[in-house]
Amino acid sequence: MRIMAIDYGDQRIGLAVSDLLGMLCGEAWTMNEWDMERASKRIAEEAAAVGTLVLGLPKNMDGSEGVRAEKSREFKAILERDSGLPVVLWDERRSSIEAHAILHAAGKKEKQHRKTVDAVAASLILEGYLGSLK
């Protein structure tokens, strides 16, 4: 069963899908969409062959939740409605920071990060979730 991870943002959304066995991160990409309803419908289409959605839940470093976490919880409800799939909220603290570090270590310039950082963050969310299943 494939699992799709989502790094939700106001302008761009990072997506990553596991392999068929749900063991490794396969493909990752970025979707440009600012409207929550349209984004959910597009993700539901992309998730046709997926069994579970994992949505990043941005928490503060002290574990508390702010406005971004509220948006993720709202998006979770819309995704479940549109996709018919269970949506697991996954603590994504530091995923974007780690994604920037990975891109920097790969020699990517800061200006190039914007295009791929959300896809890398989604991959990190997916890896964390897959690791928790073992």
Order of helices and strands: EEEHEHEHH
> Which blocks of ≥5 consecutive residues have pLDDT under 50?
none
Question: Count of DSSP E strands?
Answer: 5
Q: Average pLDDT, to the nearest integer?
A: 88
Structure characterization notes:
This protein has helices at 36-46, 67-83, 95-105, 110-133, and strands spanning 2-7, 12-18, 25-32, 50-57, 87-91. The protein is of the alpha/beta class and 134 residues long. It has a 5-stranded mixed β-sheet, sandwiched between helices. The model has no long low-confidence stretch (mean pLDDT 88).
Compact summary:
This protein has 134 residues and is of the alpha/beta class. It has helices spanning 36-46, 67-83, 95-105, 110-133, and strands at 2-7, 12-18, 25-32, 50-57, 87-91.
Topology overview:
Elements: E1 2-7, E2 12-18, E3 25-32, H1 36-46, E4 50-57, H2 67-83, E5 87-91, H3 95-105, H4 110-133
Parallel strand pairs: 1-4, 4-5
Antiparallel strand pairs: 1-2, 2-3
Helix pairs in contact: 1-2, 3-4
Main attributes?
134 residues, alpha/beta, 5-stranded mixed β-sheet, 4 helices, 5 strands, globular
